[in-house]
Design brief:
- With about 200 residues, the chain is an all-alpha fold.
- It is built from seven helices and no strands.
- It has one domain.
- It is about 70% helix and about 0% strand.
- Helix 1 runs antiparallel to helix 7 and helix 5 runs antiparallel to helix 7.
- It is elongated and about 70 Å long.
Length: about 200
């Protein structure tokens, strides 16, 4: 009887927290990646070695964010402002996961909400390393573009904040960590639907 109750509680726990448990390894490795990139060598942002199968998951997410980033440049270019065009890449890769998150929130899709927060957190970390590299401009750019095409170098120069590149990057890391925390603890919002039997007596 006692073992049956423990088994029932374990199953209930897994049903509620399985997504959080699944996310933890990817979160740990992605935070380790950005820590090494910021503290030791920025190239860890692009050359970090994820273990299998996390490397496949990260490759899929990273490719999605790269496509989103480049699409953002194109979308914001239509507005005709150079600053927005340059910012558009990083901005859109934050806004799109945020839109997905909003959809899941409105429709109470809690598992989707968890993974949306995960995606948003990874995106913040991705933008963080790019911003932190604004001064040094060491990260390789897509299409073999030169250092003069570095988004965050151009952005920070325009607002006279190039010396704060690392601080800005760290602030974005904090945003990513907050998103991770939200992703992990979304199950606390779950509400159990209780079945209620109502007997109606009609005269």
């Amino acid at each position: 009887m006692h073992s049956g109750k423990i088994k029932e509680q374990a199953i209930s726990f897994l049903q509620k927290w399985w997504a959080s448990l699944l996310m933890v390894p990817l979160m740990i490795y992605s935070l380790h990646q950005v820590y090494w990139a910021i503290n030791y060598n920025i190239y860890f942002a692009v050359n970090y070695s994820y273990p299998f199968p996390l490397n496949i998951i990260y490759l899929f997410i990273d490719t999605f964010l790269l496509i989103t980033h480049e699409a953002g440049h194109s979308f914001f270019w239509l507005l005709g402002f150079r600053f927005l065009t340059v910012l558009g890449g990083s901005l859109f890769q934050i806004l799109l996961p945020l839109a997905i998150l909003g959809y899941c929130w409105i429709n109470r899709k809690y598992i989707g909400l968890q993974f949306s927060f995960l995606l948003l957190g990874i995106s913040w970390l991705d933008v963080a390393t790019y911003a932190a590299d604004g001064g040094a401009r060491q990260l390789p750019l897509i299409g073999g573009l030169g250092k003069e095409s570095h988004d965050w170098y151009n952005l920070l120069v325009q607002i006279n904040a190039l010396e704060y590149d690392l601080r800005i990057g760290i602030s974005f890391i904090v945003m990513g960590i907050l998103c991770y925390v939200m992703a992990l603890f979304i199950p606390l919002l779950y509400q159990k639907n209780k079945q209620v039997d109502i007997e109606l007596i009609l005269d």
